[in-house]
Amino acid sequence: MKLSLRQKITLLLLSAYNKKPMSPLQIMKSLFLYAQEEKPQDFYEFVPYLYGPCSFDVYADLKLLESSGLITSYPTSREWSFFGITSEGEKYLMTDTKVVQKLDKIKKEVLSKSFIELLKYVYSNYPEFAQNSIFNSEALKKL
Amino acid sequence: MTLVIALNCKDGIVMASDGQATAGSSGGPVRIKGEKIFKINDSTLFGASGSVGNIQRSLEIIRTIKGLEGDCNSAMMDNVKQQLFLIYHADLQRHVTFYKALNPNQIPPPPIADVIIAKLQENGEQIIWHIAPDCSDELLQDLGYACTGSGDIFAHTLLKSYEIKNIDVERGKLLAYNTIKLGIEIGAYGLGEPIYIWFIKNIENGIEIKKLSDEEMMALKDTWLSWKEAEREIFGKIQIKSSEK
Question: Global pTM?
């Protein structure tokens, strides 16, 4: 199976930081932060959506990677399906140390935050992506 | 069992439904997955609850009515109602004739269809038109929403507190998702996934009429889960601790 660079980076994200599973929103925010900090070419294009930055292509890729058996989803008690990499998916991992370290750092940062802390972090650093959000940025600051 | 809703948002109309239908079989009713909202033309959506056969025939008839391509007017609306009445009345007669020997308590409910038509007029007016099984009708855009199906009381309860006409279509999609999702999860109305969402809105070069893609539905579901997550987290922050009471 031939993967695009952005699909490989999504796999690498799920493999980073001890392969901890992530919710779709944590994946979205992590890939967004990676895009903002590293400016990779041919990557996901993010738009200001109802929950902040979103690329619908991330969902398409998660669906494709899951149907190909490279990632799997786990149901949780709060209805979020968490995604994790499979042993088959690990065969497709890139070995670029710089990218691995960057994704590891971003994932660690994202997973350390509560849901609202994560929103506050993204909205305060990238307010242009909060303009269509259902969450009021000013109100979030007071929480 | 069905729930179909239409929301009259400030910049367009959102329609949503659950995805579980009931079909007849020789052994009794069976659950099947089915779409309940259909595009009639480039400015009109159709949604209905009731028996699958009656919905199919209502849809066929409405699709053949040429006047629906233009703006709604009383002559065209009367024509739609008359044509629907013919099939509903015939079905009802057949039902009564077929079951007339039975004790009234044993007669199953008659096949009916309860129709919602959502339309964006050429002058920009947004129409939500409800046609009841007896073909009486009402325009519900000023109320802000319409709903039909076994879960409609639940939808009324959820929707009545919103100023829907002040909500844009993007947020309307989320409100629609919330209504159908909670209807499926909480109500004992035999509703089921998947959720389908359509919208009609004016754009720069005309009218956009579209069903949300799988990816858009995944994003909407995550928005909804984010909303619930934020509620939980905020509630945890604002509630009075027992030591403060």
Answer: 0.91
